[in-house]
Structures
1.
Amino acid sequence: MTMPLEIIQEIQKRLLEIETYRSHQLYKEAHTRCRELLGFIERTPAVTRKQAFLVKLTKKLEQIDDELKAFSEYSKTAKMTPKERELVRKLFTTGKGTKASDAFEEATALLVFGQRAEAIKAYQALLTDATHRIAAAKSIVRCLLGDGQVQAAVNEYLAWLKTDGLPPKELDSVRVFLQAVLTKKGYRQQLPEPMIIEEIEAEPGPEEGEGDLISIQLPYVDKRFRKNKVLLDVNFQSGSMINCILPKSKQNLVGFFRPGSIFHNVRINGTNSAINASIRLAEVSKITEGQQAGSTTITMEVIEER
């Protein structure tokens, strides 16, 4: 017996909803949707291999509950000091002073100090704000990628594509960024493009340069190790300012990053191209709270392009 196409599509749609909620750390909603899908499969006679579906979904439900428990414990410790908040405002402030810009700066503060789960929730609230939605969407993707949740980032994009969550041109910018990261990480998946209807009188936009930044590669200052490179994923970017997080596993390199130091011949990889530049380390701070506690947040400024 073959399962009807509409039933297959309905199950796939609901599974995507579950994974989308999980990618936002909305585990209670994911739990509810998973329960609903279990009920749908149980009461639908046309579903084939019903027992196999039920076993897999039950395991998924257990995973979601474990994630909810872990997230609840993490959220109790997710906090930032006034000093950390002020530091991020100083480095990345827009100076606009609006409610939305303040909310964006708050979300960015969470992201820069590695509190990605809380940052996602804060950026999610900005997806309806025309001024910040594209930056918020890309930051959500960066949060998920930073936590190694590549498939969750893909699912997020697919959900926006399906629900028209972002204007097509802005969504395509998110696609270009995510696709570049997938390709660089060795994934072969090709993301579907949103349908864009060109405006007849639209003026051409400005050149995007290297586009969204993906990673930076710094040469060692010590000539004995000049052949080695330090590669860091870009955690956040704003104008000439770039933020990266040095993970706990690489804390032996902390002494290499001193505030005020200038590095030449730095390779900055973007979605459109790669450039060589000189950078100045603006701030280096230890992360003391949340899941990234023990890592180091590093903010640098591009001071010369070549």
2.
Amino acid sequence: MKTASDLRTLAEQRAWDKEIDVWLGTTDGVLAALPSGGNAPEVHQFDLLDLIADSDSDDEVALSMELKTALRARLQALLPASENRRVLIVKSAPLLVHFNLGLHEFFDWFCSDRAFVLLQIDGIAEALNLPQEFEFSPRKVVDYFTQPGLAKNVYH
């Protein structure tokens, strides 16, 4: 796992590899880790939940398709102008796992040498005490995103 200082160093580069990274921690924490001012990249954030908040569907397959379509449209709208760089902070990243969407939409429609994605996962702890009926496993989400070919780095 890499540190906030490593993330700052990455964000200060003039160009990036086509990559997606994971931030373990709060929005305030990631914003504090990113550079600001003069030559810093633009930072934009959005919540995946907002993309399906108005859906009235109870069907998992339909919701998955709605999320995928809305995500593609949002990513295309967020591409930076040719001279700008942008860091995109994506909240509610576990939805990507729940709906089995993976990260293809990000690679296909957003990531470039001037745009990279940080999937924010809040509240990860090795010994997280959740009720048994709660199906979300933060550790499994991190493990999913850190498989080869998905997220490149994990920062905290």
3.
Amino acid sequence: MEKISNEEHIKACLEIFDRVEKVLKVKKWQILPMQRKALKNPKSCTLGYINFKTRKIVIDVFTPARAQPKAYPSIMATLAHEVAHIQKPPYRSRYKGHMINRQHYPAFYKQVTRNVKKLKKDKELKEYFR
């Protein structure tokens, strides 16, 4: 990956976010880069999260340890995962006599794979997967 400034990287990520929003048909959701402070433990970090109440998807666009720009395929894979939470929402089920929240389950991961394939097929986004 070429050496680019952080501002250029964030600008490119915002363009990717706009295109992903159209390709995966995520309307009325705001996709933002994460505003991160210094990490206490770089081995335990959040790559992205989704807030259903505020309808925001937040993605970390820099590496945790050195705060270097992340590769675009990695950012899009994380985004595909977070969008899958909208498409296959979590549900509660009974397991060994207890109610549990199922956030990541086989149908969910199939949706993530479908999302990544859609992004790879898109005319504008497929250049980032090279």
